[in-house]
Amino acid sequence: MSNQHLNPKRGALTVEEAADFLRVSRATIWRLLQSGALPRARIGGRTVIRLVDAEAFLARAVEVA
């Protein structure tokens, strides 16, 4: 999936969409979620990541680099 297909008004990303957005693997997303570095929500049994949280994570990563 390409970032151009993400709908910022939607507000939440699947694990796969978050991986695509951050340009990392799904396994990396799961590690970030399990460590608490990337917040998550559970909706209907599914894990979702708020777009604002993914953007904040990326901003923090840029500040550190």
Automatic annotation (TrEMBL):
GO terms for molecular function: DNA binding. Pfam families: HTH_17. Residues 13-60 form the Helix-turn-helix domain. InterPro entries: DNA-bd_dom_put_sf (IPR009061), HTH_17 (IPR041657), SinI_DNA-bd (IPR010093). This is Helix-turn-helix domain-containing protein. It comes from Alsobacter metallidurans. The lineage of its organism: Bacteria, Pseudomonadati, Pseudomonadota, Alphaproteobacteria, Hyphomicrobiales.
